[in-house]
C-alpha cells in the first residue's frame, strides 16, 4: 500500500505503524470475554482484530510501572516459548532486569530453600497460557504481573494485560522493543526526540539454521590467509612431501614438533633447541634464548 | 501431662509389636523443650527478603507484615517479633499406615502457640519420632500466627476482653461458635478450645460447638478458623477508606539490593 501523503507521523502513530507491520493487531479466532474491550472487530475469516491504540496505551502504563521500580534487578522477564526468548534476553539486557528464558522451575518464587529462589517485585510474561506456572507462584508471593495477552488468553492473576498478538515472532520482538524503548525514555536514558540506535531486529527470534548460516558467513569472510597456510602445512606433513615444505621454512619446525616427526624432520629440529611449539620459535629464536639464559645466570650470581 | 499418660497406655494396647520402644523413649526426651539447645539457632541467616528486613530491625511488629499480606516463610521472623511466645502440645496422635511388613506408625503433633495478647498459631506435623514431630509443629505453628481481634460486650471501658461479635469456624464436621460475654464470665468452653482461646488473649467468651468434637484435630482447627474470622468481619470502624502505605520491600529496596553473605564469603576467600 503506497501512501501518497508523506506527512510526519507523531511518535504514537509511528509506533502503531511498526506494530501493524509486525502483525501485532491480529488476534486469534477465539476471544476471552475479558479481552472484549480491546477488540476492534472480527474479520470475515474469524480472526479478531485488536485495537492498537489501546495496545499503545497499555504499553505506556506497563512502562510506567516498570520505570517506577527503583532497582531494576527486582524485575523478572520470562518466556517459556522459543519465540520470546531472544526478546526477553535483550529486553533484560537494556533495562537491567533479570531474564528467565526457557523452563520456569516450579518453586522459584515460593520455595525459599531452592538455590534459584528469587523474590521479584514485578513479573513480565510473554504468554499467560504457556507461562501459567510463574503466574500462579506470583499470586502466592504478592508479585504484580504484566503480560502480553492475546484475544484468547486467560487473564486470571494478570494485573496489567497488554492486548497483542503473542504468537508471531516479529510481533513479540516488536512489543518488547517498544516496551524497552518506552521505559528508557521514561527513565531519561533516551531523549524523546531521538531514535533509539538499537534495531528492532535484535529482538526477533532467529531459527537455529538461520543463525548458523549467518555465523558461517561471518567466519568465512575473516581469516582466509591464516587458515589456508595451516591447512597446507598440515596436509604436506601427513603426505610426506617435504619438497613443497622447504619453501615455507618457518612453518616446518613448528608443525613438525607438534606431531609425529619423520627422520628428516628430526635433523632439522636438533639444530634449533625448541621444546614447545609456538610462534616465532625458528632458528632465529636460538640466540635470544641463549641470551636470556646468560642474563638470568648473571642475575643469579649477583 | 495427664493426656500423655493416657496415650502411653493406649500405645501398649494398640500394638505390642517391636519398635514401639523408640517412640516411647522419643516422647520422654521430647517432652522438655530444648532450653540450652537454642544457642545454635542464634546464627539465623535469613533467606527471604522479609527475613532480612526483620533481622535488621526495619520491621518492628507483626502487624506491619499483616498489613501488606506478606507470606512468612521463616519461623525466626515470628520469634524475633514476638519474643514472649509460649507453646503447648495439645496432642500426640499416633497414625498408622499399612505396609507389607506390618504397620508403619508416625506421630502427629498438634501444637498451639501464642503470646496471650492477640496472636495465636496452630501447627500440625507428622513424623516418625515424637520429638521431631513436636519440633516441626512448633515451627509450623509460629509460621501460622494470626492476629485475633478482641472487642467489648458492651460499654467500652478498659481493654477489649472478648470477641467483637459472634463468629463461627468450621473444620470437618466440627463447628465452633464464639459469642461475646460480659467481663468476669471467663472462657466458657471445652478443655481444647479453652487452651487456644487462652493463648489468644481472650478473657471472656461463651462457646457452642457441634459435630464430632472428639476429633481433636478438627476441633482445634475449627476454633483457629473462628479466631481467623474475627478480623475478617466488616464492622463500621472499618468503613473508612484505607490509606495505602509503601510496601516494606519498596521502602527498603536499597537495603535489600545489597548483596547477602555469599558475596562476603567470596571476599574472604580472595583475601586469604
UniProtKB/TrEMBL annotation, chain A:
Subcellular location: Cytoplasm
Keyword field: Cytoplasm, Ribonucleoprotein, Ribosomal protein
Coiled coil segments of this chain: none
InterPro entries: Ribosomal_uS2, Ribosomal_uS2_C, Ribosomal_uS2_CS, Ribosomal_uS2_euk, Ribosomal_uS2_euk/arc, Ribosomal_uS2_flav_dom_sf
Alphabetical GO biological process terms: ribosomal small subunit assembly; translation
PROSITE patterns linked: RIBOSOMAL_S2_2 (PS00963)
A Gene Ontology cellular-component term: cytosolic small ribosomal subunit
Domain Small ribosomal subunit protein uS2 C-terminal: 203-285
Gene Ontology molecular function: structural constituent of ribosome
Stated role: Required for the assembly and/or stability of the 40S ribosomal subunit. Required for the processing of the 20S rRNA-precursor to mature 18S rRNA in a late step of the maturation of 40S ribosomal subunits.
Subunit structure: Component of the small ribosomal subunit. Mature ribosomes consist of a small (40S) and a large (60S) subunit. The 40S subunit contains about 33 different proteins and 1 molecule of RNA (18S). The 60S subunit contains about 49 different proteins and 3 molecules of RNA (25S, 5.8S and 5S). Interacts with ribosomal protein S21.
PANTHER family recorded: 40S RIBOSOMAL PROTEIN SA
Family the UniProt entry places it in: Belongs to the universal ribosomal protein uS2 family.
NCBIfam families in the record: uS2_euk_arch (TIGR01012)
Protein name as it appears in the record: Small ribosomal subunit protein uS2
Organism annotation: Protea cynaroides
Highest classification ranks of the organism: Eukaryota, Viridiplantae, Streptophyta, Embryophyta, Tracheophyta
TrEMBL record, chain B:
Keyword Ribosomal protein set for record: yes
GO molecular function: mRNA binding; structural constituent of ribosome
Any one GO biological process: translation
Classification via InterPro entries: Ribosomal_Su5_D2-typ_SF, Ribosomal_uS5, Ribosomal_uS5_C, Ribosomal_uS5_euk/arc, Ribosomal_uS5_N, Ribosomal_uS5_N_CS, Ribsml_uS5_D2-typ_fold_subgr
Composition-biased stretches (Basic and acidic residues): 1-27
Residues in S5 DRBM domain copies: 85-148
PROSITE patterns given in the database record: RIBOSOMAL_S5, S5_DSRBD
Residue ranges, annotated region (Disordered): 1-42
Pfam family, one: Ribosomal_S5_C
Record carries keyword Ribonucleoprotein: yes
Swiss-Prot/TrEMBL keywords: Ribonucleoprotein, Ribosomal protein
GO CC, alphabetical: cytosolic small ribosomal subunit
NCBIfam families from the UniProt entry: uS5_euk_arch (TIGR01020)
Family membership noted in the UniProt record: Belongs to the universal ribosomal protein uS5 family.
Annotated protein name in UniProt: Small ribosomal subunit protein uS5
